[in-house]
Each structure stands twice: as C-alpha cells, then as structure tokens.
Amino acid sequence: MSLSVVLRHTAILSLVTLLSCAQLALAQIQPNDSHRQAALEVAESLRYGHYAETALDDTWSRLAFERYLDILDGQRAFLLESDIDEFRHFEERIDDMLFEGDLAPAFELYQRYHDRAESRFEWLLSAIDEGLGFTYESDMRLDLDRREADWATSEAELDELWYKRLKNAALTLDISGQDEEQVENNLRQRYEGQLSRLRQTNGEDVFGLFMAAVTSSIDPHTEYLSPRQGESFDIQMRLSLEGIGAMLQSDGEYVKVTSLVPGGPADRAGVLEPADRIVGVGQEDEEIVNVVGMRLDEVVDLIRGPKGTVVRLEVVPAEAVDMTRSSTVEITRDTVDLEDQAAKGEIVEVEREDGNKRIGVITIPTFYVDFDAWQSGAEEFRSTTRDVAREVERLKSEGIDGLVLDLRNNGGGALQEANSLLGLFIDRGPTVQVRDARGRINLYGDTETGTLYDGPLAVLVNRLSASASEILAGAIQDYGRGLVLGSATFGKGTVQTLNDLSHGQIKLTRAKFYRISGESTQHRGVEPDILFPDLVDPERIGESSLDNALEWDTVQAVQYRHYGEPWEYLETLRSRHRERADSHPNFIFLKERTELARRMREEQTTVSLDREQRQREVEARDAEQLALENRRREALGLDPLNELIDARGEENEEEPVERVQVTEAAAILADYAELTQRRLAGRF
To answer: Is the N or C terminus of the chain more exposed, i.e. has fewer CB atoms within 10 Å?
Structure first.
C-alpha cells in the first residue's frame, strides 16, 4: 500500500475514532465547582485589581477567545475552520461565562481540539506502522511558522500539512545520521508520548489552559497558578535555586530559554543561551525524551532534579533557522550559591598616549539581599550594595580613573538594593516612581546623605538587563551621573503580586515603574547613550516580544538635580567609539553576526523537503557563518576553523567575543573622563 493511500486510510479511521469517542471523552473532562468559583475570582481580580483599566466586555472577550485558540492550536494544525465557526457562539460571551460560572463552552472547545489531536496522532502512528519509505526527492517546502495562517477548511488540507510535517521530522532525523528503522522508532516514540500526555489531560489542565487565555489577554505577566503550579512557585521562591538555573517559557510547540540565572549551573557550563529551544530531555544515561509539544510545567519537571545529578538536553541554538541543527549538552544540577551571584570587581587598563588609564569594572549579576538577616536587625548581612561598596573601596585604593557597573544579563531582584546602590554614587534623592492601579504614585530612593564614589561613571547593559537593573541605569542617566552603554534593556516595567484564590493563586500586575524623568521603563526599556551590537534578538527576547505587553507611557517628572551633563559629550564620544569599533575584529563580528542572524530568519520562512536541497541550504548558511568567524579569527591572529563547530562552554580563547563590550566601555569612560577634565581645566 502506498503512503498516500495509508494516509487517506488512517485519516478516515481517525474521523471514525473522533466521532465514536467524543461523547465518552467529553463526560470525563468537565469543570467542577472549584473551577467555577476560581473563574469568578479571577474575573473580579482582573476587573478591580489589575493595573490597567480592564473592561471585561465583548471586545475583550473576542481577544480572549483568539488567545484561547492560540494556546490550543497556535500553529493551526489540528482544528478546522468549521470547528472554529461552530464555537464562535461564545466568542463575545467569555466575560459573562466567567461571572456566571459557565465554563462548559470553553471545555467543549478544548474537547474538540483534544479529539482532533488524538485522531491526528493516531493517523501519524498508523502511517509509521505501515512504513514511511520516504525518498526525500521533491520540490515540497514546509512553512516554519503558521501562526498567521488561515484555518484549514478540510481534513484533506490538514492531511497534506501533516504529511509534510511528518516528512520533515523524518528528514531531520535522517540528516542527523539515523537509519530508516531508527527514524521510525524515534518518531513513533515522539508521537506515542504526545498522545499519551494528551490522554492524561484532566479538568484541572483544561481549566488552566482557559485561565491562561483569560489572564494573558490582559498582559503577559498576569497568570493563574493552579494549586500544583502555586506549590512549585512557592518552592522556587522559598528554597535555594536547585536545578540548572534557567528561566524557560513556551514558544509555540517548543520550550525556549529566556534567561540564565547568574552563577547557576547552565551559566557556568556555558552551553545554553537565551532563545535556545529545548527539544529533548534525558536523565543521566537514559534515552532523551522528545519534549516538542509538551507543556512547560512538564518539561520543567523533567529538567528539575537532585543536586549533583546530570540532565541531558537536546538543544536547537537560537541562531538556527530550522530544527536540524540540534546538539546534546550535559548540565550537572546544582544549587545557586550566593557567592556565585556576588558583585566582583577588576581593573581594565586602557592605553593612552599620556599613560594608561585604570578603569574599575564591577560585575553585578543580580540585586540580592539576605532578607532574614536584614529583617532580624543584624549589623552584618550580605547585599548587593554592601558588596559593591566593598569593591569600590578596594578599587579606589588601587587607583582608578573611572568606574563601570556591568549590569549585563542582570534580570533584577530586590528593588531596595537598586535604591541603596544608587546612593553610593549620588547624594540622597529619588530612584524610581511606582504608580498603582488607582493612579497613586509612591517615590522610592536613597535617603542617606553623601556618596562613596563621585568620579567618572558608566553603566553597561544589554537586552537581558531587566527590572531593577533598568531602574538603576535609568536613574544614572536621568541624573546625568554617568553614561549608559550597550543595547536597549529588556523593558520589564511592571510589578506583580501573588494573591490566593479559593482554588489556586493569581499573579497579578498591580503597578508600573517610572523613571524620575517621568518615562516608563515598560516595553521600551532604557536606551543607551552609545549603542553596542547585541547577539540577543529583541524580536525574540524582551518585553516588546511578548503578546499583550503593556505599553510605554509617562507620568509627571519629579524634581531632581543634575550631577553632570554627559549628553554634551556624546557626539565626540560616539565618534571615537565608531573609530575603534569599526576596526576591532570582535565588534565587527558582533555587528555582522547580528545582521546575518536577522537576515537568515527573515529569508528562511520555509524548509525544503528535498534532502539534497536541504543540505545545500544548510551548507550555505554554515559557510556564511564559518566565513564570518574565520574573518574574525584571522584579524585576531588565531588559526582558522575548517568547519563550523559549536564551541559553547569551551575556553578556547583568552578573551571571549563579548568581552570587547567591557573593554570598549572602559575606553569610552576613559574618553569621558578626559573630556570632563579638559572642561574643568578650561581647555574643552
């Protein structure tokens, strides 16, 4: 029997299965009274407690309905247009459903998706059991992203899509060196796993999916947590971070790395980067389990484990444009020790004609404080401010001409530490404004007089600098206290609280951060005075990349003094920076690699299902990346590479590529110190 006949045959069988099982499955997955009460409490929280003025009306209901469809079937691969039309009767009723406790329509829509997906996985498994026999010689191409695609109008249309998907999955494994039997066994295991997980879905799961649509239609940080999820969240907040130290989020069918915990196992290993996708998880020497299509909490459960054990991850690098570029990495689970996150200082020498300038650099991975010791009134306790103060004193004693605070990859932490840390560099004054849902604004800042360091200052940031990091960088910029260098920050300018419900919890956005200038850090982040290229794609990572993120806006500025006028020197500083950056191999590499990655993603919207064509496309991309890397190596006097290899985690260079951002920040600050000294001497 030919494959096309098998596919048609199994499609017919799946429809029969769908019709015969629907009533039985529907009776098994139903909302209960605790779900109905929790839905009402979530709706009340959104209406009366959320920062944004949230009107739960027909317009909002349409947004929530579309969001629910995206959560259920974001790639438009299971449901038909006729299915969607059949359930549009509650498209403008979600607000009423929540307040009335009528969750049945949402559960019924899930059930339709469930039945379609169950039939489709059975269809795939039947095709595999018949033997695939792909030849990989065709002009077919598969769309990589169908989020904006129209819903299929027939089963035949979905059959064609899934035929391509199945062939692509097989081709990906074939290219990795697996024979036909291995390919079929791996695909069978993948789809059996997805089918098994689907069949284990219960009412709690469905309610969670629907609540995810309801809350995320307001903003991406407002979230319903089931009792199980709430317990997991409490454990993460209460205990030491144990696992691999990576923040993950769902990205369609995949789980994506959003950031690494500074000093954590993944950070130390150097084998994961933001926007990497995890497609498989294995324990020690066990087989790797495919996690494509698996729920985020299930993937997290697989990755989490006891300290000292090894987890194996199959990872597709962020820069890869198709899924054939996966590699397996190993990370030893561990706790994150405070010492690994402590601020650390060094001195960078900047060559100048009149003698080397010594620029202090303090790396601040996070804003931390020993809350227990602090609250108990202990005189000695660890905190970011205390550790930075110690490093400042040490660097001053060694003689420095300027100081750089390196906040790259610092995702925030204790707000009080951003306030007190600013106080080391300014006399007392406000740091940030916090506006609540009622429009009331509270000022937070440093209340102690005096400064520890009043010399030339710069803050180095990147796309992963978030929350408290953005508050500190924005305040330094607004006060004119120093320069902000690097790339635009994350843009996380909202505050969440965790509230108990009768069933589960809700993480609710309750307030918003504003700079002392009145500008929000939300969505836009902090724009540096001098921009550096960044390998993190802002379209993939950052607040502006998240659906329904709250917008940037302003409030009234507060009164504050200027400690300097760095903006008057920016034209000269930028000119000098460009001269150095345009000739530095690592800066050239960062800029060109960023542009190449963006161009590849824009051009590569489909993949070929012809093996030779696919190989040519992959080889062409690899050749471009290899040429770029070898141009850099040649300029640095390093031996060229014969092939493109993933050198993550390998200490094969004395100075990593992104180290140039630190040395250039030091050079810019040395220029700034020189220019300000000239002005003071009347020679500007």
So the answer is: N
The Cα 575–Cα 680 span in angstroms is 22
Express each pLDDT in 72-127 by its tens digit. 999 999 999 999 999 999 999 999 999 999 999 999 999 999 999 999 999 999 99
Q: Is 492 a catalytic residue?
A: yes
**What is the rounded CA–CA span in Å between residue 8 and residue 640?**
52
* Closest residue by Cα to residue 316 from 288, 281, 275, 285: 275
Question: Is residue 397 within 8 Å of 441, Cβ to Cβ?
Answer: no
Going from the C-alpha of 186 to that of each of 116, 125, 140, the distances in angstroms are: 23, 11, 23
Q: Are 401 and 358 in contact (CB under 8 A)?
A: yes
Task: Give the model's pLDDT for residue 242.
Answer: 58
**Average pLDDT of span 334-353:** 85
Contact 50, 218 (CB under 8 A): yes
| Chain segment 348-372, per-residue pLDDT in tens | 999 998 889 999 999 999 998 876 7
What contacts 102, CB < 8 A, 6 or more positions away? 36, 96
Least confidently predicted of 386-390, 503-507, 555-559, 634-638:
634-638
Dist. CA 157–CA 167, nearest whole Å: 16
Cβ 79 vs Cβ 72: under 8 Å: yes
Cβ–Cβ < 8 Å for 46, 215:
yes
Whether the per-residue pLDDT at 293 is higher than 80: the answer is no
Cβ-Cβ contacts under 8 Å for 643 (sequence gap 6 or more)? 622, 626
The pair phi, psi for residue 327, each rounded to 5°, is: -145, 160
> In Å, how far are 237, 369, 372, 380, 418 from 375, measured between CA atoms?
17, 10, 5, 12, 18
Catalytic residue among 467, 520, 545, 608: 467
CA dihedral sign, ordered 532, 533, 536, 539: positive
Indicate if 174 belongs to the active site. Answer: no
What secondary structure does DSSP assign to 40-107, as a single string? HHHHHHHHHHSSS----SHHHHHHHHHHHHHHHHTTS-S-BHHHHHHHGGGTT-HHHHHHHT--HHHH
Rounded Cα distance between 492 and 466, Å, is 6
What CA–CA distance (Å, rounded) separates 284 from 450?
A: 54
Tell me what the mean pLDDT of segment 21-45 comes to. Answer: 79
Q: What is the DSSP letter of 313?
A: E
What tokens appear for 630 in the block? 């070898």
Average pLDDT of the residues of the chain:
88
Question: What would the two tokens of residue 2 be?
Answer: 């030919």
Output the DSSP codes for 436-479: ETTS-EEEEEE-S-S-S--S-EEEEE-TT--THHHHHHHHHHHT
Angle (CA) 219-221-223 rounded to 5° is 95
**Are residues 412 and 492 in contact, defined by beta-carbon separation less than 8 angstroms?**
yes
pLDDT in tens, 373-430: 666 776 677 889 999 999 999 999 999 999 999 999 999 888 899 999 999 999 989 9
What is the DSSP track for 530-549? EE---SS-TTTSSGGGSTTP
Question: Is the entire prediction scored with pTM above 0.90?
Answer: no
Instruction: Give the list of residues 6+ apart from residue 531 with CB closer than 8 angstroms, or none.
Output: 486, 487, 488
Of the residues 115, 478, 529, 671, only one is catalytic, namely: 478
Catalytic pick from 164, 256, 492, 507? 492
Q: Which of 2, 21, 8 is nearest to 154 (CA)?
A: 8
Q: Are 392 and 403 in contact (CB under 8 A)?
A: yes
Tell me if residue 487 is catalytic.
no
Q: How far apart are CA 624 and CA 321, in angstroms?
A: 14
